[in-house]
Amino acid sequence: MNKSKSRKVGKLNKRDRISRMPDSILCHILSFLPTEPAVQTSILSSRWKLVWTSLPNLVFDDKFCYRSGGTSVNNRLTRFENFVNRMLLSNSVNINKFSLHCRKLRYLSCLKFWVALAIMRNVREIEVYLPFGNPFEEGYKPAELPDCIYNSETLEILKLETDFLYKSPSSGICFPRVKKFHVEIHKPNMPDFSICPVLEDLSIVAYLLTNDWKANISISSQTIKRLNLLIERYMGFSNEHQVMIEAPKLEHLFIKDHTLVSYLVHEVHSLCDAHIEINYSGERDHPSQADRALQLLKKLSNLQSLYLCDGTIYALGEAYQYLYDARQYFLPTFSNLSFLEVRTREYGGWILPIIFSCSPNLETFVWMMATDDPEDDVEVEWIEPQFVPYCLQFNVKKIEILYHDDDPLEPVKYLLKNCGVLDRMIFRYVGESSNELCKELLMFPRGSKTCEVEFHGKYRD
């Protein structure tokens, strides 16, 4: 073969390298695209004409319908519905994921039909996002799921971001293979998690829309290991709502509560770490409601790792000041707690020594002392305790502090002086720093001979 012909064949092979890949690899490449652009690759050549019919992931988003002009909204929605129908009916091969994002859906019956088709094709993951109206308006109807979804033997991941009407199967078992479940609650209608036999990862977003609905959110499961709970607050309603958690195998708990509901927590003996974000304001909420944060924390005494936001710290401080006379029984003993991260703003720093005194085996402490918003006028309050907590003297080995302009240095000085086995103090400064601040920090006396101080910030001469 001469050189010119060899170069020509080499260029041809290089140009067709992707097209010569097996269908399985081409489908894997297309699976990273939304379904409509993936289908459009059929015009590339005859080789690509039918590749899309074996896509493992069907991801539909009606935003593509609104990008083309010249047609009415109704016509665009019709085109979108026809496209989804075509994709789900064009082949009988198994699909891995069915994802539907709709800003507007004319007929809820279409959704029910599509989900049923996905179940027939042995789908493993279903994700549905639909906008929701006001569940308390006359004539409002939530979306329905087909009966076959409750008994699917292939579905493992289910994410429903809208208001759905749930039914309990007569078999007494719901979602028999679902391990990861994301659900939204808009009114008193929610799945019975206790009959989901293999559920491990549960996320709940609860929209508390009105005073007329006194929500009692029940989370009872013998299998879940991870729980994410987000409770959204709407203005103009009371927060007489309750969350019940009974999960003996729960290991990870994330709560972000914008209204501070009351909590009943049972049998969370396996819990390792918790992230508690509570939106509490002394101007808006009564001190009696602050006790709800305290009662929640009292049920989490087996923790190894704990994060408390500034609202949670604020609520604990309010409960301490106004509700409890027997201060020695304020908090339980966190015997297993080795990692603690807190965020404080203008209020609450003084309660940290109380938390330290209840955490004898604490080893790592992270403190975000204030906000990074330069417009906020913040000052972290610090009251030096009469007695040095046990954990500071004998166990805390690492401290990391996020410091802002005008935050007091007294707590930093106290920690350096009283931590007897501290190995590292990491000081992160946010603001216009100077060498003087670094020098002042390095001159503080240290209770540990092995302690090293690291300063991270902006320097200027």
UniProtKB/TrEMBL annotation:
Pfam families: F-box (PF00646), LRR_At5g56370 (PF24758). PROSITE patterns: FBOX (PS50181). SMART domains: FBD. Residues 15-63 form the F-box domain. It comes from the Eukaryota. PANTHER family: F-BOX/RNI SUPERFAMILY PROTEIN-RELATED (PTHR31900), FBD DOMAIN-CONTAINING PROTEIN (PTHR31900:SF27). This is F-box domain-containing protein. It comes from Citrus clementina (Clementine).
